Known about the structure:
The protein is an alpha+beta fold and 104 residues long. It has 3 helices and 5 strands; from the N terminus they run ααβββββα.
Amino acid sequence: MENTTTAQTILNQLGGNKFIAMTGAKNFLTYKVDGNTTLQMRFMKGKDGINALNVTYKPGLDLYEMQFAKLRGVKSETVEKFKRVYAEELKSVFEGTTGLYLSL
Length: 104
């Protein structure tokens, strides 16, 4: 899979345009390291000040890693990290960690 295709798939699994509307997600960046594609983004502040997320797709395992962080200026603090997340769990992990809901 191409970087952009994989990143678009990650965004779609989170809810696509509805995800963007519900969270105010912005500043999307995608990159690839060691065959793993990461989609990075910022969004409105959730619980514990979380306002950033990196989702990395591990194609060999067909699983994801999610890293939640607080960003302020150039300072970044990882708040929570999840490994071995299935595609169908992405939304619930996001909601449970940030307190931001992805549906009405």
